[in-house]
Prior knowledge:
The protein is 34% helix and 17% strand. The two termini are 27 Å apart. The strands form 2 sheets. A 3-stranded antiparallel sheet has the order 3-5-4. It has a two-stranded antiparallel ribbon with strand order 1-2. The N terminus is likely disordered.
Amino acid sequence: METQKNDESHLIHNENGEWINTGKVIFLFDSFAMKLKALADNQGKKFSIHKYYDGTPWCYRQEFEALNLKGLLVTSKEWRLLTDQYAL
């Protein structure tokens, strides 16, 4: 008998009212979101910061992954936040 993995997906709204799977987003801290936005602006790349219903900032994973993070200083709290989301 074959068993299927039951992946429970969670959805959030973006600012356009579209539903986005949480696997395609990265939740951030306010200060970290501002660092990443400044980095994206310096690199000339698109980086949109959205707000979850509780005010938590998030970005699209593909926009985050397009950034060159070399030389970006991150705190241990920011690093833990990212590694926890990539462990999923």
